[in-house]
Design goal:
It is a single chain. By secondary structure, this protein is mainly alpha-helical. 94% of the residues lie in helices and 0% in strands. It is rod-shaped, with a radius of gyration of 47 Å. The relative contact order is 0.06.
Length: 197
């Protein structure tokens, strides 16, 4: 069982090495050769995927006590496959951009300029949005401070009104006390005149 896995493993290693070499050559090839190379790499990537599936099936047939080592190797091969697909996708994007520019000529460059202009406008909008957000935050904080000041002034006004009421009460009490003392003083004077003729 492990011999079958190792056979698939060797085939996979040889195939991925070829794919890596071809992907690195794509940017330097003339347009016609690039197109053929891209198609060739797509075919080999499909073969590599099939080999991975076969290897995965073989690992599942290996007894659990011996499966760990092969599972680790499979994870490594799947990561390698993912990297190859990512590299190939990047080379295809570059190839597609190149073909588009060749077909469109100046229009392709115009499209690039439009994209750059759009990105620039997007960045400006984001900066403006951040400034507006900061201004709104300042306005909210200012409103909160103003509300707190109004509340404090309201409390102070209530305190002043209570103090005025206490002063009025004090004045009234003083007036009342003054009248009482005046009455007492008059009675004392009247009594004094009667006792001392």
């Amino acid at each position: 069982m492990s011999s079958d896995f190792e056979g698939y493993e060797q085939d996979f290693s040889v195939l991925t090495a070829e794919i890596t070499s071809k992907i690195s050559r794509v940017p330097r090839l003339p347009p016609d050769e690039k197109k053929q190379m891209v198609a060739n790499v797509e075919k080999q990537l499909e073969e590599a995927r099939e080999l991975l599936e076969q290897m995965d099936l073989e690992v599942r047939e290996i007894p659990p006590q011996s499966r760990g080592m092969y599972s680790n190797r499979m994870r490594s091969y799947k990561q390698e496959m993912g990297k190859l697909e990512t590299d190939f996708k990047r080379s295809r994007i570059a190839y597609s951009d190149e073909v588009r520019n060749e077909l469109l000529g100046d229009a392709g460059n115009s499209s690039e300029n439009q994209r750059a202009h759009l990105l620039d406008n997007t960045e400006r909008l984001e900066r403006s949005s951040r400034r507006l957000e900061a201004g709104y935050q300042i306005a909210v904080e200012t409103e909160q401070i103003g509300q707190e000041m109004l509340e404090n002034l309201s409390h102070d006004r209530e305190k002043i009104q209570r103090a005025r009421e206490r002063l009025r009460e004090t004045d009234a009490n003083l007036g009342k006390s003054s009248r009482i003392l005046t009455g007492m003083l008059r009675r004392w004077e009247s009594l004094h005149f009667r006792l001392c003729p």
